Amino acid sequence: MKHVIIDHVSKAFVKEGTPALNEISFEVEEGELFGLIGPDGAGKTTLFRILTTLLLADSGNASVNGLDVVRDYKEIRKQVGYMPGRFSLYQDLSVEENLNFFATIFNTTLEQNYDLIKDIYVQIEPFKNRRAGKLSGGMKQKLALCCALIHKPTVLFLDEPTTGVDAVSRKEFWEMLKGLKQQGITILVSTPYMDEASLCEKIALIQNGEILSIDTPEKIVDQYPKPLYAIKSPDMSRLLKSLRNSQIIQSANAFGEYHHITLSDDGIDSEKVLASLNMEGSEMKTIKPTIEDCFINLMRDE
Ligand SMILES: Nc1ncnc2c1ncn2[C@@H]1O[C@H](COP(=O)(O)OP(=O)(O)OP(=O)(O)O)[C@@H](O)[C@H]1O
Q1: Which domains does the chain have, with CATH numbers?
Q2: Which segments in the chain show pLDDT lower than 50?
Q3: Is residue 43 in contact with ligand 1, taking CB distance under 6 Å?
C-alpha cells in the first residue's frame, strides 16, 4: 500500500525566481525507509511541512495514510510523527518533562507507548532530570525522536535528523531507524549527507525544488552513464586545473584523496590520460560511482 502520495506539488514563497518545490511527484510504500537527499535550500523542509499539514501547497495534491493533507489535516496530525530540522524541544524542561509534555498533548502517557521507544529511551534515561538545553547533540536528537514517537505514529517524518551530529551518534541514529522500521513504521528522512543515502531502501535526489532521480540507491548508482575514474597526484590543485582544461576530460570533481573524472571519449585508456597530463607521480583507477557522483552528474544534466 502507498502510505504517502505526492502528486505534482508546487510551492513558491516569492513570485520571481526558482520555486521552493516545482511539480514534485513520488510515492512511499507502507513500511519503507525513504530518504529525501539534497543540499541546503533544495526544498526538503518545505515538502515535509506540507506533508505534516503545517504549510499549504500552491498546487498539487498529497496524502498520508490515505488522508488528504488539506481536507483531513486534523486526522493526519494524530497519525504522523514529525521531528523538525531545528531543535524543537523545550530547552528549559527536563528530558522527562519534555516527554510527558508531548505525551499529554496527544492524550497518552510515556508508559502506554513505552514498547515503541524503550530502546531509544534507555539511552537517555540516565539524564532524565537534565534540562534538554544541557544535553549533547546526540542526546537531544534521541529525545526529539522519542517525543516524535510518543503517540505511536504510523508515519514518521524526520527532517535532517543527523545534521550537526557527530559521526558516532549519526551511526547510532540510523541503527535506531532500522529498529523502528522493523516495527512497521513508514519513515521519511531528509538529509544533506550523500553517504546516508545507501542506508535508505529508496531515495529521491532533490535539487532546486525538483526531483532529479528516484529509485533504490543501488539502481541510481547502476544508472550512472559512463565509466568513472579516480585520479590523484602529489599536486592535487594543479591536477584539478589541468583536468578541467583538458579536451579529453568531460568532468572533474574534487573528492577528498582523489579527483573523480569522466572522459569525453570512453575509448581513451588511462595511460593516454596520464601521458596527456604529464604530471609525475599521478595514479588513475576505475571506480564505482557514489551517490554524490550520481547527484553531481544529474545536476549537470539539468
Ligand atoms: N518561509 C519562507 N519564506 C521565504 N522563502 C522560504 C521560506 N521557507 C523556505 N524558503 C525558501 O525555499 C527554498 C527551499 O527551502 P527549504 O527549507 O525547503 O530547503 P531544505 O532543502 O530544507 O534546506 P535547509 O536545510 O536549508 O532547510 C529555499 O530557497 C528557501 O530559502
Answers
A1: 2-221 (3.40.50.300), 224-301 (3.30.70.100)
A2: none
A3: yes
